[in-house]
Design brief:
This protein is an all-alpha fold. About 60% of the residues lie in helices and about 0% in strands.
Length: about 400
């Protein structure tokens, strides 16, 4: 088994999103749950067409941008501090487990050429303004986890770093969005074009990687903010269905003309990813039905979707490691001649491994998920399939909105 280490018319204007009562949008919860499932499936299979079916990272950044814009009705410093508080404890827990295991396998200060650099870079496990370091080429544990496991563990951390920078930049982005909506939304794509055409070159790796992530998914984050601000709803109804598919197809055309396929998919093509994600997210936000209650057909899945949303950070941080462990365990079955001779198709199938992956993710939710509750100042819960109960402040009951 191989794993891969993701409108209203002028006559009848709609009420802006900002005027809506605060609360969970079930449509957004569904999108986030689908995005997480697709990320896990893609990192297990490496199927190049999956990001085309559903651009998970663009969707996740757009939903986060929407929530950030809603939160910025409060003082910016307070909002940024709250977002960092909710984001960082699950990362610290991953670091305690992962970095400790790396050190026990021999990773240490000499790995960066100078002890001071190693210790300095370790601070990115505390506040990931840049990619946290990890040990490359570590041996695995036979029959349990494959070699170079640290690279799989650290793989999702680019998302945490990018998310943190978006949070820090959001007050400025929101002001720019209100002043110059179209220019602000399109500026990350313009930056992606500049990088693709090599009009901009920067030395090193850390700053270029951060700017590349902004140019790839920044427009999605800003689209989410624009949706919350009601800017998208002020567009004539025909604009988004007319423009968004053209932008997405431009990204697809670019990908197909640059050897799109397994090993060279959208993740390897920032400009194509930016265009495809932007166009798709634009459509999804345009269609947004803003469910305050679950539609009847989705009610049987409400608990599962709530669980995925309540533990989104934990699932994202640990899923790569779960995939590597599941694939390593499943590969041991090839050592049984009876299975190898009679059911080779089953041993080669990804679906049993996917089930095993989600069982391991469930174990991570039980073991590490409580950190998300503590970060949100909620009572720790092992398996949160229901919304947290309202809490009382100053004699008034207040619900605790999810992130």
């Amino acid at each position: 088994m191989t794993t891969h280490t993701t409108p209203a018319t002028e006559a009848a204007p709609r009420e802006p999103a900002a005027a809506k009562k605060p609360g969970r949008d079930r449509y957004f919860d569904l999108l986030r749950a689908l995005a997480l499932f697709r990320v896990v499936l893609y990192h297990l299979t490496g199927w190049a067409w999956l990001p085309l079916v559903f651009p998970s990272m663009g969707v996740m950044f757009a939903l986060a941008g929407n929530l950030m814009a809603r939160s910025l009705k409060r003082p910016a410093v307070q909002v940024i501090r709250g977002r960092m508080r909710r984001l960082l404890p699950p990362l610290w827990l991953l670091g305690v487990v992962g970095v400790t295991a790396m050190v026990l396998q021999g990773w240490g200060p000499d790995e960066d050429g100078h002890p001071g650099w190693w210790l300095l870079h370790l601070t990115f496990w505390i506040v990931p303004l840049s990619d946290p370091p990890y040990a490359e080429g570590l041996p695995g544990v036979h029959g349990f986890i494959g070699e170079n496991w640290a690279a799989d563990l650290a793989g999702p951390l680019w998302y945490i770093r990018a998310y943190l920078w978006y949070v820090l930049l959001s007050p400025v982005l929101l002001k720019a969005l209100r002043a110059l909506p179209a220019l602000t939304i399109l500026s990350p794509i313009a930056l992606a074009v500049a990088f693709e055409e090599v009009w901009i070159t920067l030395p090193g790796d850390r700053i270029p990687s951060a700017l590349t992530d902004f140019s790839t998914f920044g427009a999605c984050w800003i689209l989410g903010m624009a949706h919350q601000e009601g800017i998208l709803r002020r567009l004539p109804r025909y604009i988004v269905p007319s423009v968004a598919p053209v932008i997405a197809l431009a990204g697809l055309w670019y990908a197909l003309h640059h050897d799109f396929g397994t090993g060279n998919d959208l993740d390897s093509m920032p400009l194509a990813q930016a265009l495809w994600s932007f166009g798709t997210v634009f459509l999804l936000l345009h269609l947004s039905p803003s469910w305050t209650e679950w539609p009847r057909r989705l009610r049987p899945f409400a608990g599962t979707i709530t669980l995925l949303n309540s533990r989104a950070v934990t699932i994202y941080l640990w899923h790569n490691t779960c995939i590597l462990i599941a694939a390593t365990l499943w590969d041991q079955l090839w050592g049984f001649p009876l299975l190898e001779q009679n059911v080779p198709g089953l041993l080669e199938s990804v679906w049993p491994v996917l089930i095993l992956v989600w069982l391991l993710i469930g174990c991570c939710v039980l073991t590490f998920g409580w950190a998300e509750d503590l970060a949100a100042k909620q009572r720790p819960r092992l398996w949160p399939t229901k919304e947290p109960r309202a809490r009382v402040r100053g004699g008034r009951r207040r619900s605790v909105p999810g992130s």
